[in-house]
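Reagents: none. Just compute today. Histidine phosphatase superfamily clade-1.
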Amino acid sequence: MGHEWIGAEKEFKWSEDVKVESEVTEIVLVRHGETTWNAAGRIQGQIESDLNEVGQKQAVAIAERLGKEERPVAVYSSDLKRAKDTALMIAKTCFCPEVIEVPDLKERHVGSLQGLYWKEGAEKEPEAYSAFFSSQNDLEIPGGGESFDQLCDRSMNALEQIAKKHKGERVIVVTHGGVLRAIYLRITQASSAGKLLNASVNVVHRRDEKWIIDSWSDVSHLSSVGFLQRGFDGDAKA
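Predicted 3D structure written out:
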């Protein structure tokens, strides 16, 4: 069984029979640029929100940085617009002909919190707000939201499949703060992932079925553009 590409948007279908080799795969994980809702303090989840002016400049800055580094063989992205728009700028600068969309890389569905401002979440949706910050990882967020375990499972599965397809190669994956947090905590088993900043570079390596964090939350390329200092912090209540 191989991998199939369907339609103009190149939907990616996973294969389950790729041999495991001892080569290192480098995956550059990128959080999308700043959006209008990021700046306003609104909870996006899986709701669409466009890159704002700062976010567009961040996307250009990260694209310029990655364009000067080792050329990736592919650029992957969440299917949400804010990630795709960031990924398209990166793909152009890195001379990759397309962006491959992976729905499992989309942000966590946070149920009835979606669309609210962080500062009003605890008052308007106390049960959902409590579930989001709960240490009970199998607790689903009321209103159709995912549990943290569900988010971790789909995020890591997507990463595993990309790594299997690109043994010994370098690829770029554009995703979201919640997904990055899930990946970091699943790999490190740490108690906190800290702040996940817009347009940050986070590098992981895969070798011999083991994941290693090479670098995390690097925003050195944004010195002339700026970024929201608060970032995404799923460990601390607003």
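The helical segments are 36-40, 53-68, 81-93, 118-124, 126-132, 148-165, 177-188.
Action item: order primers for follow-up constructs.
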